[in-house]
Amino acid sequence: MSHRTLHPDGWPRPRGYANGVSAQGRQVFVAGQIGWNERGELAGAEFVTQARQALRNIVAILAADGARPEHLVRLTWYVVNRQAYLDSANALGEAYREVIGPHYPAMSAVEVSALMEPGAVVEIEATAVVPVDEK
Fold first, then answer.
1. pTM of the full predicted structure?
2. Residue 30 · residue 68 · CB < 8 Å
3. What are the helix (H) ranges across 11-88?
4. Cβ neighbour number for residue 44 with a 10 Å cutoff
């Protein structure tokens, strides 16, 4: 396995993310993705709807280079409403597992005052590492 989850002894287990990931291989960097489709239209106004589409966009970009969701080592979430993020935890977890599966890379979430695209409520950046023996 080219990825290893890092969990210091004595720390509580994180829920829905890893504290750190060690990986070797080809790096894939995905620009921040918002919840719009291939026509540049927002999937909807709700947080979970946009997050699901942003995650789908990440998976599509990874696939363009032969990478898969399990190759993700880092996600950074930018949200315009911290409370909306927290209030949607269960539905967001379901959407995440639907698109990414049971793989939890290192993650950060940051509240921002606005995103560049009007109406966007979440933007997600991703980094993946594809093992050298995979293409």
1. 0.92
2. no
3. 47-63, 82-87
4. 14
